[in-house]
Amino acid sequence: MRPSKRAPDELRPVSLERGFSKHAEGSCLVRFGDTHVLCTASVGEQTPGWLRGTGKGWVTAEYGMLPRSTNERMRRESAQGRQGGRTLEIQRLIGRSLRAVVDLKAIGERQITVDCDVIQADGGTRTASITGGWVALHDALAWMRKRGMVGDGALVDHVAAISCGIHGGQAVLDLDYSEDSEAGTDANFVMTGKGGLVEVQATAEGAPFSDDDLQALMALARRGIRRLVDLQAMAVG
Q1: Which residues of the sequence carry a binding annotation for phosphate (predicted)?
Q2: Can you tell me the distance from the alpha carbon of 197 to that of 225, in angstroms, rounded to the nearest whole number?
Q3: In which region does residue 71 sit, left (phi positive, over 0), alpha (psi from -120 to 50) or beta (all else)?
Q4: Reduced to 3 DSSP states, what percent helix, strand and coil does the chain have, rounded to the nearest 5?
Q5: Most exposed: 37, 98, 154, 211, by fewest CB within 10 Å?
Q6: CA 6: distance to chain centroid?
C-alpha cells in the first residue's frame, strides 16, 4: 500500500486555476496534491539577441521555490547571489517542454517568459510547473491573438509532465515527497497531447532498473498525462 493510500495508477488531486494573476497575460495556479505552483506567462517585445532578424520568437522559463515552500525556511537564491544547479536544470526543462509545442515563427520576434514559483512543495514541482505552465502559455497566446499579434496556429499541442517511480517494488504514478524520498527508481516524463515524448529523466537510487521496469513506468506516465491533458483542456475550454 502506498503511504497516500492511492492506487498505483492514481494521481494526486489535481487542479488548474486559470487566470489567478490579474497582471500577467496568462496565469495558472496548479495544484498536484500538496504541491502548489503559481505559473505566470509574460509577453515581451524583444527576442534574445541571437534570434534578432530571424523572424522567430522564443519561449523561456524561470523557476524558483519560496523560502517556506518546504518544512524549513530556505534562503532566497537572489540573496545568495546565484541560482543553484537544480534550479537551472528545472527551468531549462520547463522551457524546452513548452517550446516543443509552440510554432516559434508564428509568434514573431517576441519572447514569452513563463515564471514558475513554488508556493508549497511536496514532490513533483517540475512536473506541476510544466503542466500549469502550459495553461499560462495558452492564455498568453490567446491574449496575443486578440490583439492581432499571432494567428491561430501558434500553439500546436498540449504538453504535460508526471513523475513515476518504483516504490516498495511496485511501479507507481505521481510521487509525493514521502514516496520520492524512498523510491528505488524515480522518473519524470514529459509528453505532448498526441503522445510524443519530449523528455525522459529516470534514475536508479539503488539497484539498477530493468527494461521492463522502464516500460511499466512509461505506461503509467502515458495514462497519467492523458488525464492531465484532459484537465488542461477543461481548464481552457
Answers
A1: 86, 124-126
A2: 11
A3: alpha
A4: 30, 30, 40
A5: 211
A6: 22
Q: What is the DSSP string of 28-40?
A: EEEEETTEEEEEE
Does 145 belong to an annotated binding site? no
| pLDDT tens digit at each of 237 positions of the chain | 788 899 999 999 999 999 999 999 999 999 999 999 999 999 999 888 899 999 999 999 999 999 999 999 988 887 787 788 889 999 999 999 999 999 999 999 999 999 999 999 999 999 999 999 999 999 999 999 999 999 889 999 999 999 999 998 999 999 999 999 999 999 999 999 999 999 999 999 888 999 999 999 999 999 999 999 999 999 999
pTM for the full model? 0.96
Provide φ and ψ at 192, rounded to 5°: -85, 170
Give the phi and the psi of residue 47 in degrees, each rounded to 5: -90, 160
Contacts of 210 (CB under 8 A, 6+ apart): none
Please check if 124 is assigned to a binding site: yes
- Which helix (H) or strand (E) covers residue 26, if one does? strand 26-32
DSSP 158: -
Question: Is the CB of residue 180 less than 8 Å from the CB of residue 121?
Answer: no
Whole-angstrom distance, CA of residue 215 vs CA of residue 54: 40
Cite the beta strand spans of 93-169 per DSSP E: 111-120, 159-167
126 marked as binding residue? yes
